[in-house]
Amino acid sequence: MEELALSPEENAALGPVLAEIAKEHDTIEDAGLIRRAPLHARRLPVRLLEFLEDFRLREPSALCLVSGLAVDEEELGPTPAHWRDSQYGSPAFRHEIFFLLCASVLGDVFGWATQQDGRIMHDVLPIRGHENYEIGSNSLQHLSWHTEDAFHPCRGDYVALMCLKNPDLVETVVCDGADIDWSEVDVAALFEPEFTQMPDNSHRPENASESTGDPVVDRLRARSFSLIQSWNDDPVKRPVLFGDAEDPYLTLDPYHMRTEGWPDRAAAAFRGLCEQIEANLRGVALRPGDTVFLDNFRAVHGRKSFRARYDGSDRWLKRLNVTRNLRGSRAWRPAPDARVIY
In angstroms, rounded to a whole number, what is the distance separating the alpha carbons of residues 161 and 280? Predict the structure, then answer.
């Protein structure tokens, strides 16, 4: 893991910049703020810009950690009970802006019409009633390791997490593809389109609001849910590995993969890859002010279980999806500058 800790001087310099930007907007979802984020990002400390650019271009690791951003937990107030409660008047607005600017160095942030009502920045927090559901808002069961949005051709290059609270030091678990012994894996078999990947639970309609109030958006979102259902009913066969056979990229989410009917060689190769990943998982306990960027082509990630208290003190993260090729999803977005995939 690549790491950079902000210095006290860098923190002090960031304060006025983030406060100035915050005065001009009322939510991190403001389209103008998101559009200008790459310009504002140039005001980040040069050392941080160089660090993120090196991570983007050289791929020295599948994850990088930026630590040291000052977080006042009293100022944050209680962890929201649900992601719907956190968009406006966010006590973490300046932190959200810092997170957005860092992500904009790596690429373009985007959201899903089928996740958190199309928001760009997501809240990751325990929700009462989701304790044993395979979704990021669960708590009592592990969140199984996976490639983020593995089922979708427009999945992001990076998934990013910023920690606001983590009193129990709940670990995010990660396997970097560089740690896998590829000589022990049937790589050629995993490059073949023999594997069925289902949409994950976070994109299902029961996790969305019934209506956004905008009939056009509701129509587009209904189309997205219908397409996702079709992929559940008739999953497309695809490879698990792609890119360079000597140092492959990977995309898999075993919890949501239907293994019936796979050729014997493909099934054996998949089991071998999963065994390698299990053997090389490691935990990362994020602390307030930590921001981690996971290369979604080179790593899988999950989370260990914990017991939520629902008293306002629970673990609270922010999440962003980042793509290096926004144009690649143009068929899924209603306008060239739209950031939500339908």
Answer: 21
- Residue 290's alpha-carbon distances to 70, 194, 285, in angstroms, are 9, 39, 10
* Beta carbons of 142 and 256 less than 8 angstroms apart: no
Q: Dihedral sign for Cα 303, 309, 314, 318, please.
A: positive
Closest CA to 94 of 63, 64, 68, 69: 69
The count of structural domains within the chain is 1
* Segment 191-236, tens digit of pLDDT: 999 999 988 877 877 666 667 777 877 787 788 888 888 888 888 8
Cβ neighbours for 71, distance < 8 A, ≥ 6 positions apart: 95, 164, 288, 289
pLDDT of residue 209: 67
Domain harbouring 155, CATH code: 3.60.130.10
> What is the Cα–Cα distance from 315 to 325, expressed in whole angstroms?
32
**Does the pLDDT value for residue 145 go beyond 90?**
yes
* Measured distance CA(264)–CA(98) in Å, rounded: 48
Q: DSSP string of 214-276?
A: -HHHHHHHHHHHHHHHHHHHSPPEE-SEEEETTEEEE---GGGB--TT--HHHHHHHHHHHHH
Structural domain range at position 297: 2-180+199-234+280-341
CB 291 within 8 Å of CB 142: no
Nearest-10 crossing angle of helices 93-106, 31-40: 60
